[in-house]
Structure formats: C-alpha cells, structure tokens
Amino acid sequence: MVTPDPSALVVGWIAAFIGAIGFGSFAVPIKGEAANSVDIDPLVMQSYKSLMCFLTSWLVLLLGQEFSFTWWGIVSGMFWVPAGAFNIFAIRNAGLAVSQGIVSSSIVMVSFIWGNLVFREEVQSQPVAYFAILQIMAGLWGMSYFSSVESSSPQHSDSDVDGDEKADLMLNDEEVDEDFGNEPSPLSEPLEISDERKSSTKGRAILICGKTYQRRYVGLCSALICGIWGGSCLVPMHYAKGENTSGLGYVISFSVGALVVTIFAWVCRFSYHLVKLRSLWEAYEILPPFHLKVMWLPGAIAGSVWSLGNVGSIVAVKHLGQGVGYSASQAALLVSGMWGMFYYKEVTNPVTVVKWFLSAFVTIGGILLLGYESHVEN
Q1: pLDDT at 271
Q2: 123 φ/ψ angles, rounded to the nearest 5 degrees
Q3: What percent of the chain has pLDDT over 70?
Q4: For the segment 210-253, what is each residue's pLDDT rounded down to a tens digit?
Q5: Distance from the CA of 319 to the CA of which of 181, 209, 281, 337 falls in 20 to 30 A?
Q6: What does the pLDDT read at residue 170?
Q7: pLDDT tens string 186-203
C-alpha cells in the first residue's frame, strides 16, 4: 500500500470542499423571480455555463499555472455538456431536490466504480469502502427527500390531471416544433418548478418521438442519465499525458472542450431544423432565445460559481483520486439544501429539519469513512 502525501490530502480535501460549495450554490442566482419568469431551454442554460467556464478558466494562469492543453478535454466536454443539459431538464420537470438527489448519488456510484474497478485506486478494505459509498448514497437520498417533502402540494383532481394530459396529447408535430421557437409555449415550464405548479406538472405528458410520457418520469430518467453520463466527465484527465495536464493544468482543456461541444450541439440542432424546414431563416428563427436582458447576469454568476466548483473537483480528483475526490464534491447537495432551508425557507418544520440534518450527518460520515479507507498514489 502507498502512503499518501499528507499535504496532498489536505489540498485535495480543501478542493473537494470548494467543489461542493460551487456545485451546491450555482443554482442560487437562477432561482430568482426574474430568471423564473422566462422559459429557458436546457441547451441555452448550458451555454451560459459553458461560456463562463471557458472565460474563467484562464484565471488559473494568474495563479502561476503554465498553459497546457490536451485533446482529452474535448472528451470531457462530450460527457459534461449533454449531462448538464439533462440535469437542467430534470430540474424543470422533476423538481430540484429529487433530481439532484438522483444525480449526486449516481455520480458517487459511477465515480467509485471508475476509481476502484478501473483505475485500481487502493483502499484498506473493499467491503468497508463499498459500505461508505452506500452510506453516502443513502444520506444524499435522505437529504433530497426531506428537502422536498414540505414543498409537495395537494394533488389536482383526476379530472384536472386528465385535462392537462389531454391537452398535451393533442399536440401534433407542427405544434411541437413551435414549442422550440422564440415564443414561449403555453405548456412550457419555468426553470425552477414553483410550488403552485408542481402538482399540475406531475400529471402532464410530454411528446417524444411520437410517444407520450409523463413529464415527471422523463425528468427522473434525465437525472439518472445526467449522473451516470456526467459522472465520467473527469475520467479523461487520467488518460492525459504530460506533466501539466492534471489538476489546475486540466482546467483550460476542460473548458475548451465544453465550449467546443456546446457549439457543436447548436450546429446539430440548427442542422436538424434546416433539414426539416429546408429554410436557413426558419431554421434560425426556431432556435430557442437566450433571454439576454433577463438572464445575462444570473447566467453569468451561475456559470462562474459552477466553474469554481469544477476547478475544485478537478484538483480534488488529482489529489484524492476519482473515487474519493469526485464523490466528496457531491456533498454539494448538503450545500444546496442549506440554501433551501435557511435562505429560501423551503423547509420550516422542525422535525423535517432534524431528519434532514441526520441524513446530512450520514452523508458526511460516509465521505469521511471513504476518505479514511482510501490510499491514493501520487
């Protein structure tokens, strides 16, 4: 077994803490009334994040980091950009707390599988390490559940839900195309599902490839896809060759990859509409708007805060390993839950608050246990 460098462990855990703060706080600027007043397409919101990730990544040069680039950053972008868009879709259609519980717990599972089974990152005891992972996932699920238990509102009557579903089922292909246009659809939802609209959203249907599905179920599946696919976004860093292509040296490569993949996603979307409509102007007009007047400031702040968390997670993975570093960064759910309880007052019942904190302690205990069990080669 390789004894880890104590200074590297300290840096890694501080970086994981920064990652959790950034990942857990980036959604705060986009939860305001102004941002919720517009219908933000998932790819548009992801574009704000990718752009700010790119712009802020160059700040690492001011920290004394030498410029370095690896094409593996493009691969990271291929994992992160689609996962980010799925995450935004999940938040809009399944709710923030539940979707992030699925995302965080699945990322923990995927990261540990990569670290333990693929990269063979050493642990003192395999059974104890797996127990720690299960403990973290259970704690994340508990925090997710108790963050949303008070916000659920009474269900609509069957007739109301049936009416909503019938309205969605009557959408034909032409109306669905218009749903992606510059004018918000009457059936579209805000970025954050408000308490008043959760019950109606729960019974709504969405048309995908000619088939209808309940929006909530599609949102939950999107959260799972985000966690499984996005949980591998820092794996390419392990294959990057060179002295300066890990840790802070990977930040610029990651951001370039994110921007390139985001632009490619827009090209693909435009090409799809161009083939279908056979008109350059109409294909352009049908693309979703960026709502710059409303979203430029919250979008920029959200992207910058997320970028800070991303830098922290990259450094944490370098010093703690894929299994521990990225898993520890998923304590972001604890941070977002604290925002929800103490700033937005989303949970006020003392019993529920106690249960949430018990789940938080379970999560923290699992992270500490996993850290204790891990031995990372530097």
Answers
A1: 96
A2: -135, 155
A3: 80
A4: 778 888 788 889 989 999 999 999 999 999 877 678 889 999 99
A5: 337
A6: 41
A7: 333 444 444 444 444 445
Query: Closest Cα partner for 299 from 22, 30, 25, 19?
Result: 30
In the chain, the amino acid numbered 368 is L
Average pLDDT over residues 318-323: 88
Would you tell me the crossing angle of helices 42-57 and 292-320 to the nearest 10 degrees?
A: 60
- At which residue do the structure tokens 């019993």 appear? 351
Pick from 294, 297, 345, 299: nearest CA to 37 = 294
Q: Is the dihedral of CA 341, 346, 351, 355 positive or negative?
A: negative
Residue type, 158: D
**For position 322, what pLDDT does the model report?**
87
* Distance separating alpha carbons of residues 94 and 86, to the nearest angstrom: 11
Calpha distance 132→114 (Å, rounded): 16
- The arithmetic mean of pLDDT across residues 36-57, rounded, is 90
CA distance 127 to 368: 15
Tokens for 326, please give them: 């990225």
**155-168 pLDDT tens trace:** 444 444 344 434 44
Please state, as a whole number, how many other Cβ atoms lie within 10 Å of the Cβ of residue 112: 26
